[in-house]
Amino acid sequence: MIKIHMFQAGSGDCFLVQIEPDTDNEINLLIDCGYNYRQGIKPKLEDLISKKRKKIDRFIITHYDADHIQGALMLINDNGKADDPKLFPIEQVWLNTFKHLQFSKRENVSNENTIEIVEELKELDRKVNEFDLVGDKSARQAVLLGKQLYENGYSWNIDFDNLAVSPESRENIELYDGLYLQLLTPSYSRLEELENDFIEYLKDKGIHTADDELLDDAFELYCKTINKDNETFLGNKAKASKAINNYSIKYFSKEIEYSPDTSIENGSSISFILHYKGKKILFTGDAFAEDIESALLQAFPQKEDYPIKFDAIKMSHHGSFNNCKPSLFKIIDSNKYLFSTNGKTHNHPDVETISTVINRQTMERRGLYFNHSLKHISEFKNPKLQKEFNYFYKQIESVEI
Prior knowledge:
Layout: E1 2-6, E2 15-19, E3 27-31, H1 37-50, E4 58-60, H2 66-79, E5 93-94, H3 98-101, H4 111-130, H5 145-151, E6 172-176, E7 179-185, H6 188-204, H7 213-225, H8 230-233, H9 246-252, H10 264-267, E8 271-276, E9 279-283, H11 289-299, E10 308-310, E11 312-314, E12 332-334, E13 336-339, H12 351-358, E14 366-370, H13 383-389, E15 391-395, E16 398-400
Parallel strand pairs: 3-4, 4-5, 9-11, 10-12, 11-13, 13-14, 14-15
Antiparallel strand pairs: 1-2, 1-16, 2-3, 6-7, 7-8, 8-9
């Protein structure tokens, strides 16, 4: 049995996946650690892991966006040394930093110049957090995550021989007999885009790349602050509400209004399939729909297998339509779709995404699972719509598979 806990992480993600809980074979995966760490996530982890003297087998941090990483800063800080953890042992962390990319030739760099860049980015990061209405304010006091992992001695990307977490480093990671994770994204090319963007930023500042620990700090801060404009600092503007009825569902599920996500940081997101005893669960992070679709077409080349049936699908980027291209849902399906967000940033999930999921013929009812109450999509609770499109709507804390 697999149990997925969908912790309330504000507009972010935090999942605890327990495989065969309360048995000698139990494996625990913690995926991301967004907002609401002190009041929401930490007490849950204490009840489920610490008090039961369990461990986290893999702490998978999909990418550097604050809504995925902010609580991780505090968790590692609270946990302390890897060999003497205050909360629970963490066997290994997955996180892509500058030193793991290794695509560019490194040169010597002046520490003095690098320190200036780090301080400049710290100030920008502080401003982002200051105006982040859904964030945990205590996160402002946390040091850089990469620095904490290094200084506290955590095992880090060991599954990938200390290279980047990518299917091109290693496609399948076996955690236990019959349990493995199949990497889908990010590709090396997506990681190179992020690295090159950072290198260009450094060049503008008169700095050349190097094997310098300070550049790892700068890279982390840069990833957290790129593509943040003044409107972000003041709070994101909510989208206008959209009518939800049988006509709009059929219209919104068409690809005519789709536009792809192009943010470099989301393109670097880790996504994978969890395989266990014939069960498959798709975890997408914030990855691009096009990248996931391409990886799945390669991994499942037999057209007669489509749509690929998953036992659960975690929706990319909190259900943003920019990451949920309708063509992707022609090759995947599930009776459990998982949405993690409080809807207070960008009004995620998008009405178009839910319409795309439900406006398809199916042999069984699809379940829409949410970890927060979401006012802007409450019309999807309409019994008539649920009957017509053969789905159900449920707010949950966890789901068993």
